[in-house]
Amino acid sequence: MASKANDVARAPDAARRRPVAVIDIGSNSVRLVVYTGEIRTPIPLHNEKAICALGKGLEKSGALNSQGVKLAFDTVARFVDIARSLGVERIDALATAAVRDARDGEAFAKALEKRCDIKVQILTGKQEARRSALGVLCGIPDARGVVADLGGGSLELVHVGGGEMSEHTTLPLGLLRLNEASDGDRVRALQIINKALAEHKWVAKNKDETVYAVGGAWRALARVCIAQMNYPLHVLDNFALERSQAIALFDVISRLGAKSLEQITGVSRSRTSTLPLAAAVLERLLEITRPKTLVFSIYGMREGQFFKSLPDAVRKQDPLVSLAEEIARTAGRPTASGYETFAWMSTLFKDESASQKRLRLAACLLRDVWWSEHPDYRGEQAFLRVLRLPFLGLGHEDRAGLALALFYRYGNSPDEPAVKQAQALLENARLHRVRTIGLALRLAYALSAGAPGVLERTTLEIDAGRLVLSVPDNDSLFRGGSFQRRLERLAEHIGLDAEVERI
């Protein structure tokens, strides 16, 4: 199979499972996420949050916010009813820093359990930190650096590398607590941040790695950065900045007023008051850790809980390949044809890296997913869906390359503004490669109509300046069709002559 020949792991077809739910009872918000099932990539079926501010006033009172407790009771009860109405197999209710630290936190959790007939787990700082790190590893298995998860009550820091977690710490630097401890004064807040981070020397020992920013406040911060930069791709998943660029942006953002922030699309009014403080925390963290790159992750504690619960065999699957397979199956397209297409065109890509192979395999698995769209819009729909899919787990250049490969598969004109923006993210050599993939996918479909077992009756080879397609002479399947024209297009693109050889 293609997976063995090219060292690309092929994930087994998994039986469909019932949805699973995670209720995150945080210091500021309570959120429900229902995932479609126990498959490798956590695909949200429903996502809803409510601001309860359980941790408001905790720094001074030592107790949960009484008004927030009332809101949380009603919110969790509603979320449990929603989850059960969606037929979930399991509800994981997790309480974090505010419930953990409040003197009445355990009583609150027990009351929730009795009222909603669920089990509430109060996570320790270590457990919360490790789940945040698992969330990042769920989307980025090769992540190396410091995962930093900022919530309302705490800041979790964990070092990851080689798929494992090592040093970790939990700091009382959540935005609600930090704002209260500093009385909203930025200078005082920075002093508190510096003192807390100075007590954990391991944080400064990871120079030139990556900081992975997790949490709703930092996702909002990423939206502001995208707006400030006029960045062409409005996708938070794996949005990355160089350290110096990030620090310069955060220094500006940390001084913006609420009115300026409210004008930025996608930033909720509830975030504007704490966003400058969130920028200050991340700016100081970058100055101390001195990473090469900052990456914003949309995966965090909830996805870590989901990932933790998966069977080992599923956890070991490649998240991108597994997701591409799942999307193909949902669209009614056989995954076997994707692997055949991958092997069949491999002669065109002799010197690929493992990363390049993985992306090409994903393109082959997704090649016919948009068959039900109107023919005039298939390319556009394929391109936009892949470009904007919120849980793809790819860096933006890889995401743009995969989206463009599928756009070219349908042969569309690259005049769409979004297409030009994606092209601007890639160097010429990368653009040439993804166009080669798209044209090869186009030829493959002309030969096989997407049916499994057909491409294996043909071969594609480069020989003495020619791109040679060999087909069985006595097979009526290859007596007509548009494959000759598409072979010529592909050959012209890579600078070869086209030839059909009947054997």
State Rg. 25 Å
What is the count of β-strands?
14
Main pleated-sheet profile: 6 strands, mixed
Mass-distribution shape: elongated
Number of helices: 23
Indicate the low-confidence ranges by residue numbers. 1-16
Portion in helices: 40-55%
Average of the residue pLDDT scores:
90
Q: What is the strand arrangement across the widest sheet?
A: 8-7-6-9-11-10
Brief sketch in words of this structure:
With 503 residues, the protein is α/β, with parallel strands linked by helices. Helix content is 48%, strand content 16%.
Describe the protein's topology:
Layout: H1 2-5, E1 20-25, E2 29-35, E3 44-51, H2 58-61, H3 66-85, E4 90-95, H4 97-101, H5 105-116, E5 120-122, H6 125-139, E6 145-150, E7 155-161, E8 164-171, H7 175-182, H8 186-198, E9 210-214, H9 216-229, E10 239-242, H10 243-253, H11 258-262, H12 269-272, H13 275-289, E11 293-296, H14 301-308, H15 312-315, H16 319-330, H17 335-344, H18 354-365, H19 378-388, H20 396-409, H21 417-424, H22 428-448, E12 459-463, E13 466-471, H23 483-493, E14 497-502
Helix pairs in contact: 3-5, 6-14, 7-8, 8-13, 9-10, 9-13, 10-13, 16-18, 17-18, 18-20, 19-20, 20-22, 22-23
